[in-house]
Amino acid sequence: MSNTEQTLSIIKPDAVERNLDSEIKNMFTLNGFKIIRDKKIKIEKLEAEKFYKVHETKPFYNDLCEYLSSGPIIVMVLEKENAVLANRELMGATNPNDAAEGTIRKKYGISIDKNSVHGSDSIENAKIEIDFFFQD
Ligand code: ADP
Ligand code: MG
Hints:
By secondary structure, this protein is α+β, with helices and mostly antiparallel strands. It has helices spanning 13-17, 21-30, 45-51, 61-68, 83-91, 104-108, 123-133; strands at 4-11, 34-41, 73-81, 117-119. The longest helix has 11 residues, at 123-133. The N and C termini lie far apart (30 Å).
């Protein structure tokens, strides 16, 4: 049975800054994702705080929001069978040091905070995050 889903992906400032956007987009398409929506933006810290609200009690929250708003990012809607889980797998573990070979974070991530990509962690959050960046 087909189970096409959409998920939100962000290429974070560290990767955009290193001009890795085409390589990372290629990894998505080579792995069977369709890039349905795609835009390069820079967000304000207040928007980053809203986006990462689930982490507001974490000690790294402030740095995380500073970081996401520190430079251009690319936000994308990805579509594939079981896209949410498939994207989490392709991204790899949050800490690039723990990420499996062949994952985006293993290949491109610099550190736990500069880990190159964001991906929604559930179908419910994917809907919320897609609406957050693509209202139209
Ligand atoms: P993921 O991005 O894998 O879903 P989380 O949702 O747990 O990870 O965290 C959101 C982001 O916050 C991570 O991608 C990472 O950039 C940052 N982060 C998570 N844990 C830490 C930490 N212990 N120290 C610094 N930054 C962190
Ligand atoms: Mg997360």
